[in-house]
Specification:
There is one protein chain. The protein is mostly beta strands. The protein folds into 2 domains: 8-71, SH3 type barrels, CATH 2.30.30.30; 79-103, no CATH class. Helices cover 0% and strands 45% of the residues.
Amino acid sequence: MKVRRDDTVLVVAGKDRGKRGKVRYAYPKDERVMVEGVNMIKRHTKPRGRARQAGIIEHEAPIHVSNVMLICNRCHRPTRVGFKFLQDGRKVRVCHRCREVID
């Protein structure tokens, strides 16, 4: 997957289009990512002991990886991600706009 945890992304589709956030979790098998402050849902919960709070709790839900674009660290713009092999044999992600190594 081209988006990893702790990357900054821009949401390009859906109800939260235009929001930026940091990826909290990445689920490669499901092709989904959880972004801070994006795709907020509400859950109605009952109290279970002293630990869980009852009521309507709002938290993030995963969003499909095709609905986000990675923000490049160098040019600070949303970009597509490519791959390249370095001289030492490592495979790294590359910004398509400025050709800078992201990893």
